[in-house]
Target: Glutamate dehydrogenase
Amino acid sequence: MQEEKRVSMFDNAVKQFDRAASIMGLDPNLREVLVKPKRELIVNFPVRMDDGTTKVFTGYRVQHNMTLGPAKGGIRYHQNVTLDEVKALAFWMTWKSAVVNIPYGGAKGGVTVEPSQLSFSELERLSRRFFYEIQVILGEEIDIPAPDVNTDGQVMSWYMDTYSMSKGHTSLGIVTGKPVEIGGSVGRTEATGRGINICLQEAVNYLRDKGKLNKKDEEITVAIQGFGNVGSNLALTLTEESKMRLIAISDVSGGLYKEHGFTAAEIRALMERTKNRKKLLLEVNEEGYKEISNEELLMLNVDILSPCAMENAITIDNSKDIQAKLIVEGANGPLTPEADEILLSKNVFIVPDFLANSGGVTVSYFEWLQGMQWDFWELEDVRKALHKKMTSAFYDVIKTMEKYEIDMRTAAYIKAIDRVATATKLRGIYP
Ligand SMILES: NC(=O)c1ccc[n+]([C@@H]2O[C@H](COP(=O)([O-])OP(=O)(O)OC[C@H]3O[C@@H](n4cnc5c(N)ncnc54)[C@H](O)[C@@H]3O)[C@@H](O)[C@H]2O)c1
Model:
């Protein structure tokens, strides 16, 4: 039987890299070094199930690049996790850390499992055994995991405890995304949404300076797709800290539209009601809001659109009808490559995902710093440091964009690749 030909996610990721590499004239020898993952670990490990049987699961940890510092990236539990996917995600983490200029390389991990089919204690046994298995390549200054799809503060607590038990002392720096009670950072939960808002505000300032946006904040309208951790925290910081009008929000159940804009108090109330994955539309059935579909939200006549739900939300089919002049990508990969091209040809200004949503990894870095020093910051310190990191990353990419006269996504790649390439050249090839 002929084997089905699959599109490799890793090969696709490398294509984006190659476009930037050719524009910046990257040395082909360096290209080879920067593309290939440094380490790929596959582990098959047994877990005792509640019914007395034993199941063997497969997990991965890939360290893509460790030139700028320890490898950093989440661990996901999902039935579709493959080595190819983990490699691609680790590759992107290298460029995300480099673009926001934190001293980390890129890594990612995963276990092929459907976690909803595990009991709480099976989940704990799987998490502890998996972490123990991959511990051979981890360390507080080597590789620092974090939450990703279907892993959370509880799983991070088990990881931290498992590692600490084998070392004989508490090691806070081994994972980030921990609950605040055991060394997590204040401000981590809101960090990705807050960071997207920082990029959104700076993009508006930039477009105004260039004469491409002639509106006051009060006149600017915004729509946000997705009301999970990322979308809701973006909605909150936007309505709390700017005068722009957020007129539409949505989740998987559909969207809400409010012509005069949502207030911060309304967003807070909606966040409270949709806690624990409750659906937006099912929780809200009062006057004052108009219901719209997710497709309608994307096509609204707004100035700014921020897709914060899932990948491939904007495709070749719906991109032609998008009216927003500025798109700030909150989710990972919300635009297909074809949609990206169409929107760029319509002169839409796009702030790319790995810059816009890097607030999460940035505050993870702050959590790691706090854990390594056993010294914990106030919320205001975290917010101030995040603002400084994100604005300087934003303008570093803008400068690169203007230098090469390219789009912001390619510029972000060039800036990130340049940082890792320069470090690689300075360090040289050992021996
Ligand atoms: N959480 C982080 O710190 C973080 C950091 C970087 C990137 N991201 C990316 O941001 C995106 C969102 O992450 P999150 O943590 O907010 O996830 P989440 O699970 O908390 O929320 C996802 C939201 O998207 C909505 N949604 C799902 N399918 C939808 C659909 N078909 N149409 C409209 N809405 C839909 C859900 O209802 C929910 O409101 C993902 O792409 C994630 O990889 C998250």
Q: What stands out?
A: Residues 188-356 form a domain with the Rossmann fold fold (CATH 3.40.50.720). Residues 1-5 have pLDDT under 50 and may be disordered. The radius of gyration is 22 Å. Residues 379-404 form the longest helix (26 residues).
